[in-house]
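re: ur question from yesterday

yeah so i grabbed the chain u mentioned. its 175 aa long if i counted rite. heres the sequnce exactly as i have it in my notes:
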Amino acid sequence: MLLSFIAFTLATQTTGLPLPAANPTRSVASPTKLPPANPLAPPNGGDERAVLATVDRLLGGINTRDAAAIGGVLLSSAGATIVTEAGGGPATVHTLTNAELLARFQPGPETFDERVSGPAVEIDGDMAMVWAPYVFRLNGKVHHCGTNHFSLVRENGAWKIASLAWTSRTTGCTE
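ran it thru and got these C-alpha cells back, copy pasting raw so excuse formatting
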C-alpha cells in the first residue's frame, strides 16, 4: 500500500518533466558557460584577490614542481578529479587523494607551465569557487588544455583549496 502511494505521489510530481538523458552529450569547452564573475563583488574586491592569490600560489607550486608549496594551499583532505577527454572516445574520470596529487609534483627534468585565463570567481561567505580555462605546457610546448575548477573555503582567515577538478584534452588548445 505504501509503495503504491509513493509511486502515485512521484508520478504526479514528475508529470510533464522530460526523461533524464541516458547518455548526455559531452560538453565542449566554452568561456560563456558561467555568468560574469562576481557581478556583486565587494567594494574593495579583497576577497576575490585573496581567492585568486591562493590559486596563483597553487599554480606557482605546480610550475616549480614544489609539492610542499602546493600542499600549503590545500586542505589536508583535499583531493582532485581529472576528466580526460580522448578524441572521439568516452571521457575517463580519475580521482586522486591528497597524497596522490602531491606525488605528481616531484622534482624532475621537465619544465611545467600551467596558465589560466579569464577566471570566474564566485564567493559566498567563507566558500568560493574559481572556474578558468587553462593551457599546460611541458618543456615549452602545449601538452594539453581544459578547464580548472577550484573549490575553496576560508579557514582561520585564510583561503584553502578544498578540492580541485579539471578537464584535460589535447585538441583545440590555443598557443
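noticed a couple things. Confidence is low (pLDDT under 50) at residues 1-14, 17-31, 35-43. also The chain has four helices and seven strands.
anyway ttyl
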